Amino acid sequence: MRLNAAGALAALGLLVAACTTPPVAPAPAPPAPAPGVEQGTPGWEITHPGPEHAIEGYADRTSVLPGDTVRLFVSTAAARFTVTAFRMGSYAGSAALRTWQSGPVPGRVQAPAVVQAPASTVVAPWQPSLEVPTAGWAPGDYLLRLDGDNQAQQFVPLTVRTPSNAGRIVLVNAVTTWQAYNRWGGYSLYDSPSGQKAQRSRAVSFDRPYQARDMQGAGDFLFFELPMVRFAEGLGLPLGYATDVDLHADPHLLDGARAVVTLGHDEYWSSAMRANATAARDRGVNLAFLGGNEIYRHIRFGPSATGPDRVEIDYKSFTEDPAHLTDPLEATPEWRSPPYPRPESVLLGNFYQCNPVHADLVAAGAENWLLAGIVHNGEHLRGLVGNEYERVDLAVPTPRPIEVLFHSPVTCGGKPDFADATYYTTASGAAVFSAGTQYWICGLDPGCPHSDGDATAGAAITAITTRLMRAFADGPTGTTHPATDNLAALGIR
């Protein structure tokens, strides 16, 4: 879920006029570069998006291992175009480092979108335009910028995943959520060209570009993910990189990992994604959820003509999904919904409630090691709850012991409520932190629009997140920092 709104990536100089994009967390200003930090590449941003369909493309995979070759499918009115690969992260003077550039490639306008029955699945039935080698590329999050000789520009996202995540904190790109909201070709899992939600897609394909408007072809990476990627890389910790398609496909992805971090909007999860994350937690891998609406939609994957796991299926209904007759546990209502409810709280600790809201974070667990010496109980961090939120709800299964770190009054849909940031620990030694708000990552930026750039709020979120990441990098954090249940003290029953 998300709220129609307008946002800005002010720190990157990107104006995002977003009819359907949620309020945007600007990328944090990186710390002053330490000696030896690599100089970044300025001018990576899109400055000339051009008219709709002037240039656009997609890759044949959401992620690759270093050295793999990626096929790009590009359609453009330009006679020629080039592709420039930027690794996104924490660099001196920039959020990007140029790693590769193609020579001129002949352009052509490819076939129009095809809407496939019965699920109204949009595909771009295109021929490959070029192959991109990734030999020598470091693991990380990349944007491939398409530049036409007609001055039009667009991004294609690509993750170069880490061959082994042993000893690393794994940052997971939520590409399933990006694709769920992608309206390229007129359809998404929410919308149809008619505007009638009943005619929306029931399955969406990665064999199409991300829309230019709102997404700049980059999915939600610029809005919900790049700020945390820059922040995490600036800490100098051992990081791994993957997408949630990798979390679905590879049960060994998290072998030996120290922690997993999901970013600002990670709503769409398959059974395998959830099983693999849960298994990792149960063998001591720490988990951090830095959004406010995770593990809400249940999806499954199917193949496309391009390869496996390229179609994301979500009927948002048990009885409408044909799988309810053949494999009912893989039918796709919300995770919490009958007839087989499996609430997200089992893994998160807190439980999605409502949107939109915009309120202060209010500290309630200042005795906890994450908050101690940084905030005091009752302290407000301006504007950092929104636009979706979670709270502890003991009407659904909830891990115990669990600590509520921030217990923030909100009003949503005319009803008073609380947004809760939570921390719990398990017998395996794993610790699980859930921010319970989509604006947490925005707080890492001194210019965060949701907090009006409040310096106290920014300093607190930066200090807490730094403490969290450094502890999680050391291994099972629950062994050294076990949770102390405080629900009764807060009147949560």
UniProtKB/TrEMBL annotation:
Domain of life the protein comes from: Bacteria
Domain N,N-dimethylformamidase beta subunit-like C-terminal: residue ranges: 82-448
Presence of the UniProt keyword Ribosomal protein in the record: no
Signal peptide: 1-25
TM annotation in the entry: none
Pfam family, one: DMFA2_C
Record keywords: Signal
Protein name per UniProt: N,N-dimethylformamidase beta subunit-like C-terminal domain-containing protein
The species this protein was found in: Amycolatopsis thermophila
